[in-house]
Design goal:
Layout: H1 2-7, H2 12-22, H3 24-34, H4 36-54, H5 83-90, H6 94-115, H7 117-128, H8 132-143, H9 150-160, H10 172-179, H11 196-224, H12 228-236, H13 241-252, H14 254-266, H15 273-279, H16 285-288, H17 291-298, H18 310-338
Helix pairs in contact: 5-6, 5-18, 6-11, 6-17, 7-11, 8-11, 9-15, 12-13, 14-18, 17-18
Length: 344
């Protein structure tokens, strides 16, 4: 019976598919030899990923070891299992960890809520400017803060909101906010940089100023890729500028917005370490301490960090990374089910 089945001629499509599958690796090797220059260019990138991304993963084993934990018997200090994670979740270190976790999530959520739409609005505004020269100048001005050091950005922010001994010496922006009634007179001499309730607002505004222009590049590239015939059809139907933006531009770049939003959700627990470290102080620690600075303090990297707890720091960092991965997977799954756009 088997020999009879083999005698039955296969359809042409199945025969071609079987032929391709049979010689798949052979054809792939031929393509690699043909384009060997492109694959050689991948070698530096692969080395960077191996040396800086994959090899350090071995050090994650430190999260399951102990250092300087008095409550753990000496005989068990080489490997303590999930003790460090338990300590972070509901142990001695839980107070500091949950405060850092809450601050990280709040700062990132506010950044996504207020900072994510700004680059889209900037891209829409750039698209409406007809003069290429004028648009180029504005784009360079908005991109420029991104290429300035975080130290410079933080220093400029501190100069505008600098703590001063008298009212007349307060920063110019602090004085303007005081005239508008947004800052009380008794808070002005203290300085907005030293008041915990102002840290989140200062951090978000300075972050938007720094990155909004640079982040608009992706959305502007998606907008200029829209076919002009779509605009012409909308104008023929009598659509105004706002109607064109609503019914032509935004639906056309919706997939780009979705992908960028998924990536932004994945970064809810990954916040800029440098700016936080430069901006916060002992007065604003209650609202400014985030997971990255908390980990640095545990590891003894910051001055006055106390006894180094590398194992506990590794556990805290690992928990943040795993949570970020779960957020990306969840956002991607929701996007895939709600629409046809997803990251993978």
């Amino acid at each position: 019976m088997a020999s009879r089945m083999n005698l039955i001629p296969k359809p042409e499509a199945l025969r071609i598919r079987d032929e391709l599958e049979k010689h798949y690796w052979k054809n792939a090797f031929k393509r690699m030899l043909k384009d060997w220059r492109l694959y050689v260019m991948l070698v530096p990138m692969l080395l960077i990923f191996i040396l800086w991304r994959y090899l350090p993963l071995y050090e994650l084993i430190a999260a399951f070891k102990a250092d300087g934990i008095a409550s753990v018997p000496v005989i068990d200090r080489d490997f303590v299992g999930f003790f460090n994670f338990q300590d972070l979740l509901y142990g001695v270190a839980s107070t500091g960890f949950w405060q850092a976790f809450r601050n990280t999530f709040i700062l990132s959520f506010y950044g996504m809520l207020f900072g994510f739409p700004i680059p889209i609005i900037l891209a829409l505004m750039f698209n409406e400017i007809r003069s290429n020269g004028y648009r180029s100048v504005l784009q360079v001005l908005t991109y420029l803060p991104r290429f300035v050091s975080a130290v410079v950005i933080t220093t400029l922010t501190a100069m505008l909101l600098q703590r001063s001994g008298t009212f007349s010496e307060a920063g110019i922006l602090a004085q303007v906010l005081n005239k508008l009634g947004l800052v009380a007179d008794n808070q002005l001499p203290i300085g907005m940089m030293y008041i915990p309730s102002y840290f989140r607002s200062v951090f978000q505004v300075s972050g938007i100023w720094e990155s909004a222009g640079y982040d608009s590049i992706v959305f502007f590239a998606a907008i200029i890729g829209i076919s002009p015939t779509s605009y012409e059809a909308a104008r023929i139907d009598g659509a105004s500028k706002m109607a064109q933006i609503r019914y032509v531009v935004l639906p056309s770049i919706l997939s780009t917005i979705t992908i960028m939003l998924i990536l932004r959700v994945g970064g809810l627990l990954t916040i800029g370490f440098e700016r936080v470290l430069l901006m916060y102080n002992s007065h604003t620690l209650v609202t400014a301490d985030v997971i990255s600075t908390y980990v640095a303090a545990l590891a003894g990297i910051q001055a006055g960090g106390g006894v180094a707890r590398q194992s506990l720091a590794s556990a805290a960092d690992l928990m943040g990374a795993v949570t970020s991965m779960l957020l990306v997977m969840g956002a991607n799954m929701i996007s895939r089910r709600a629409s046809e756009t997803s990251l993978y």
